[in-house]
């Protein structure tokens, strides 16, 4: 049994999708990020960085893994699935996993902050991060012209990138002119394990929407950003 500490974010959903794909039994513990539950001492004992997701593998002497990419690798290697056995195939999966960890995730995260959450709309910052997201999306689209999935068969690389790219509208980035990326998004979304995983836990809002619920969600996130700024400035 695996204990999953998570929230309804792309990084959290990466792990719930993988657990569903691998049919591994797990218990979900949803943390309230607005209440800073991830900063409580009990959780910092699990992940000293105070971020979700994290897992505790009860079947492996309560082994703890944090950082979503590291968790995906651990689960794939534990089960021998969603990653090839040969060194070259494994490297290809890891390369595209790192592409998400070092590029897609950070750039979309910053686009979200400046486009959705930051109290002041700084056009240069919004353009910078949305533009970088677009560049990375074009890389994916070009690669997917000749590949059904990112690294051979469906793998943890697809799961990691998909969990973020699917929220592109929330980052204010359009993909209408990227047909292979759209094909890939739809193909993965159709998987039953993916459909279940993105609801473990369910998002508070539809990140594709532009309605009052979405605006309220953005307002709450903006409040968290402002509180973080105040703490850093000593206010």
Automatic annotation (TrEMBL):
A single Gene Ontology MF term assigned here is: oxidoreductase activity
What domain of life does the native source organism fall in?
Bacteria
Q: Which family does it belong to?
A: Belongs to the GST superfamily.
- In what residue span(s) does the GST N-terminal domain sit? 1-83
Q: What EC numbers are recorded for this enzyme?
A: 1.8.4.-
Instruction: Give the top-level enzyme category.
Output: oxidoreductase
What is the protein's species of origin?
A: Candidatus Accumulibacter cognatus
The UniProt record lists the GST C-terminal domain at 86-217
> PROSITE patterns under this entry?
GST_CTER, GST_NTER
Q: What protein does this entry describe? A: Disulfide-bond oxidoreductase YfcG
* Keyword terms of this UniProt record: Oxidoreductase
Sorted alphabetically, which PANTHER family does this protein's record hold? DISULFIDE-BOND OXIDOREDUCTASE YGHU (PTHR44051:SF22), GLUTATHIONE S-TRANSFERASE-RELATED (PTHR44051)
């Amino acid at each position: 049994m695996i204990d999953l500490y998570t929230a309804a974010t792309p990084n959290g959903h990466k792990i719930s999708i993988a657990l569903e794909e691998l049919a591994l039994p797990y218990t979900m513990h949803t943390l309230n990020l607005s209440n800073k539950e991830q900063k409580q001492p009990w959780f910092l004992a699990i992940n000293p960085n105070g971020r979700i997701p994290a897992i505790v593998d009860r079947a492996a002497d309560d082994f703890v893994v944090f950082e979503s990419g590291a968790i995906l690798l651990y689960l794939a290697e534990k089960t021998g699935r969603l990653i090839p056995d040969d060194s070259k195939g494994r490297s290809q999966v890891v390369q595209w996993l790192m592409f998400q960890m070092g590029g897609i995730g950070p750039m979309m995260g910053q686009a979200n902050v400046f486009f959705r959450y930051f109290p002041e709309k700084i056009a240069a910052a919004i353009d910078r991060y949305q533009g970088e997201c677009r560049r990375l999306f074009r890389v994916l689209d070009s690669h997917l012209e000749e590949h059904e999935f990112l690294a051979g068969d469906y793998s943890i690389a697809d799961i990691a990138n998909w969990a973020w790219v699917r929220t592109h509208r929330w980052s204010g980035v359009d993909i209408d002119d990227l047909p292979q990326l759209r094909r890939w998004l739809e193909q993965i979304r159709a998987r039953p394990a993916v459909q279940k995983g993105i609801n473990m836990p369910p998002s508070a809002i539809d990140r594709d929407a532009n309605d009052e619920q979405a605006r309220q969600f953005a307002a709450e996130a903006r409040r968290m950003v402002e509180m973080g700024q105040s703490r850093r400035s000593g206010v």
